[in-house]
Specification:
384 residues, alpha+beta, Amidase signature (AS) enzymes, ten-stranded mixed sheet, two-stranded antiparallel sheet, 29% helix, amidase activity, hydrolase, FAAH2
Length: 384
């Protein structure tokens, strides 16, 4: 299956119509009986949007970088007229009245949102994707294994050729772990880079991106280039403010200075504590100060290196319902991905190979603060 960039180029040059591509994708989604990745579609709206995209090509109108590309978004983003459930039966009837900011921006870039991908209940599991409304999502590489969570539906949809592009969310690895388990690319952008409007539990107020917050939202894709395109289409504050992504530090692989785990181990322990303890307001403020110190420490580290490489997870995708993995507690899977979540640095997972059993293996690239394109470009060059 083509990348989003490749199919958009074919649509823009008239080699194929957006309607054809969208109809084909909708048919594949309808035929899927095993993966259960895309759980709601808006067929008529999507086809109408695809037809409008084709008319623009015929008329020679200016078009965006995702022109005519059918894609999905995680079932935690508002899409007008579609359900936003967060996988919770209490919100099964919740219909969104407006589009989330990222949905608005993706559509402005030309994307055709065809449906929503499955999530774990309330996005509350980094390792699995299942809920009482839509059921369980399976890993296309092995249906008996997890696709990861909570953006497992989107990662599985990409791996199963059920979407060209996906937008998910990442608190503690919810983009990166599914990307690693399913063999696709997933980016957690710099904290606050992408607006969170329209990404909130139904009935709760909008949480501005500028507030101290570990959660962020970002794209999943089949290539690093698609991550860049999606990020450029969605990054920055609402009008009248603007933000321009910093260019990559280098454009040749041999110019990158690469840090690896083992030489600067203390960076990974700049934040620590008892996760089971009860925290007072003073404790929380102290933790926030420590988080800022850790961020500054990482930034000093990135004065000497351009990117930091480490695994995305300890293991490949594990069987559904596992509570221990290779004898280790389930929660240890977050070790590698928690650090960027805490400091807010951009981090992406990219496929780096497969096991003899055919299970995907992911590697993680962490970049400097607000230098997302440095990490993306490194991954792009590394993949060749």
């Amino acid at each position: 299956m083509d990348t989003a960039g490749a199919i958009s180029e074919r649509i823009r040059t008239g080699q194929v119509s957006s309607r054809e591509v969208t109809e084909e994708l909708l048919a594949r989604i309808a035929d899927d009986t095993q993966v259960n990745a895309v759980v709601e579609v808006r067929r008529e709206d999507a086809l109408a949007a695809a037809e409008r995209a084709d008319v623009m090509v015929t008329e020679g109108a200016a078009v965006g970088p995702l022109h005519g590309v059918p894609m999905t978004v995680k079932d935690c983003f508002d899409v007008a007229g579609m359900h936003t459930t967060w996988g919770n039966p209490a919100f099964a009837g919740n219909l969104a009245a407006h589009d989330a900011a990222v949905v608005e921006r993706l559509q402005r870039a030309g994307a055709v949102v065809v449906g929503k991908s499955n999530v774990h209940t309330m996005l509350a599991d980094f390792g699995q994707t299942a809920n009482e409304i839509y059921g369980r999502t399976n890993n296309p590489a092995d249906l008996g294994r997890t696709p990861g969570g909570s953006s497992g539906g989107g990662a599985a949809a990409l791996a199963a050729d059920l979407t060209y592009l996906e937008y998910g969310s990442d608190l503690v690895g919810s983009i990166r772990l599914p990307a690693a388990y399913c063999g696709v690319y997933g980016l957690r952008p710099t904290n606050g880079l992408v607006p969170l409007r329209g990404f909130q539990v139904p009935g709760t107020p909008y949480l501005p991106s500028e507030l101290p917050n570990l959660s962020t939202i970002g794209p999943l894709a089949r290539s690093a280039a698609d991550l860049r395109t999606a990020l450029r289409a969605t990054a920055g504050p609402d009008a009248p403010y603007s933000y321009h992504l910093r260019p990559p530090r280098h454009t040749r692989l041999q110019d990158y200075r690469v840090g690896v785990f083992g030489r600067q181990v203390e960076l990974f322990f700049a934040l620590h504590g008892d996760s089971d303890s009860e925290l007072s307001l003073a404790d929380l403020l102290d933790l926030e100060r420590r988080r800022m110190r850790a961020r500054r420490k990482w930034q000093r580290y990135f004065e000497d290196v351009d990117v930091f490489l480490c695994p995305t997870s300890f293991t490949v995708a594990f069987p559904h319902g596992s509570t221990t993995i290779d004898g280790l507690p389930y929660e240890t899977q977050v070790f590698w991905i928690a650090h960027a979540s805490l400091t807010g640095h951009p981090a992406l997972s990219m496929p780096i190979g497969r096991t003899p059993e055919g299970l995907p293996v992911g590697g993680q690239v962490i970049g400097p603060w607000h230098e997302d394109d440095t990490a993306i470009t490194f991954a792009e060059l590394l993949a060749g």
